[in-house]
Amino acid sequence: MQNLSQVLAQSSAPDSLKSVLAVTTGTCIAISDALKQGSLAGILGMAGNENVQGEEQKKLDVISNDMLKDALMACPSVRAIASEEEEDIVAANTDGEYLIAFDPLDGSSNIDINAMVGTIFSIYQQTGDHAATEQDFLIAGKHQVAAGYVLYGPSSMLVLTTGDGVNMFTYDPTKQSFILTTENVQVAPETKEFAINMSNQRFWSENMQNYVKDLTLGKEGPREKDFNMRWVAAMVGDVHRILCRGGIFIYPWDKKDPSKPGKLRLMYEANPMAMLLEQAGGKAHTHTQRILDIEPTAIHQRVAVVLGAANEVDKCLSY
Ligand code: AFP
Ligand 1 center to residue 243 CA distance, Å? Predict the structure, then answer.
């Protein structure tokens, strides 16, 4: 059974990228250890302040963000970082080759109920020899050189692409390394499972209401088959299920705040997940365009997300 460094040694990833991935995944194991202590370490609950998103920060949001920021800042190959928990980018090493954007703890509202959370990361190659600015991060997702997440579930799993397919690794505490457990993940184009927060139904566009209504009508309805529904309330958990057994995940635009295109963030949620899904034969769109084609305008911008089984994404967008 190969471990992460053996798999990367056989890939075309340059040593500098391998070092960024080693620091990122190594820090995720430290985050996993902190999560496992849970309330025993007095680190659950609220940190008592808000992040740039105006969201109440949980202690572990801040702890995991600081762990990743400190470790990546010390990595010579990192030029700068962007994080859900940091208002601005944080410049690191001026001769570093890579920019990394991350959500240190996606699904943090699940922490206090011991449910699925994860770390999502997106890596770009920086060009030019200047100190990084926010502008340098505003690169379309199709230019990512690597993307992935570490899911803190019953086991800690790394799911990673460096542009040549998607591999899944399971952390083995006895070997203290991620072991390759699924190679070249593929998502089936059809599905019978959808993921959406149904409590927002009355706020969706009429087209989205009609699409989801037809799913719930099952065999008797126009889709002529029954569907199942799952909602983890952590994108990393819903995407992992889709990479493992198919499905479609939707966080659509809603009229709760019409000025917001969606809830999920482009740079460190939608883009990395979109790269993973496309590398696994799936699709990832907003209501109007391929997510990886979006030219970002701000590091914390939000987008609507429809991703998963290619034919089901097409069907949803046909409404
Ligand atoms: P938190 O990190 O604030 O828990 O939000 C998680 C998330 O950004 C994404 O991971 C989930 O898919 C989505 O929000 C869940 O949103 P709802 O709480 O509206 O279901």
Answer: 19
The answer to whether residue 16 is domain-embedded is yes
Residues whose beta carbon lies within 6 Å of some atom of ligand 1: 55, 106-109, 197, 233-235, 251, 263-264
Query: What was the pLDDT predicted at 148?
Result: 98
Looking at 182, 208, 233, the residue that finishes a domain is 182
Mutation pick for ligand 1 pocket among 110, 264, 269, 303 (CB with most ligand atoms within 8 Å): 264
Residue 255 domain boundaries? 193-318
Mean pLDDT of successive 10-residue stretches along the chain, which has 319 residues: 94 95 97 86 71 75 95 97 97 95 95 94 90 94 98 97 97 96 98 98 98 98 98 98 98 94 97 98 97 98 98 98
Q: Which atom of ligand 1 approaches the CA of 264 most closely?
A: 8
Identify the CA nearest to 235 among candidates 282, 181, 199, 271. 271
Residue 188 lies in a domain: no
Pick the residue whose CA is nearest to atom 4 on ligand 1: 107
Query: Which of 194, 239, 197, 249 has its CA nearest to residue 217?
Result: 194
Last residue of a domain, one of 123, 149, 182: 182
Distance CA 180, CA 178 (A): 7
Closest-CA residue, ligand 1 atom 19, reads 197
In this structure, the dihedral spanned by the alpha carbons of residues 240, 244, 246 and 252, taken in order and rounded to 10 degrees, is 0
From 251, 256, 300, 303, mutation site for ligand 1 pocket: most ligand atoms within 8 A of C-beta: 251
If DSSP codes are grouped into helix, strand and coil, which group holds residue 287?
A: coil
What's residue 47's pLDDT? 74
Specify the pLDDT at position 131.
Answer: 86
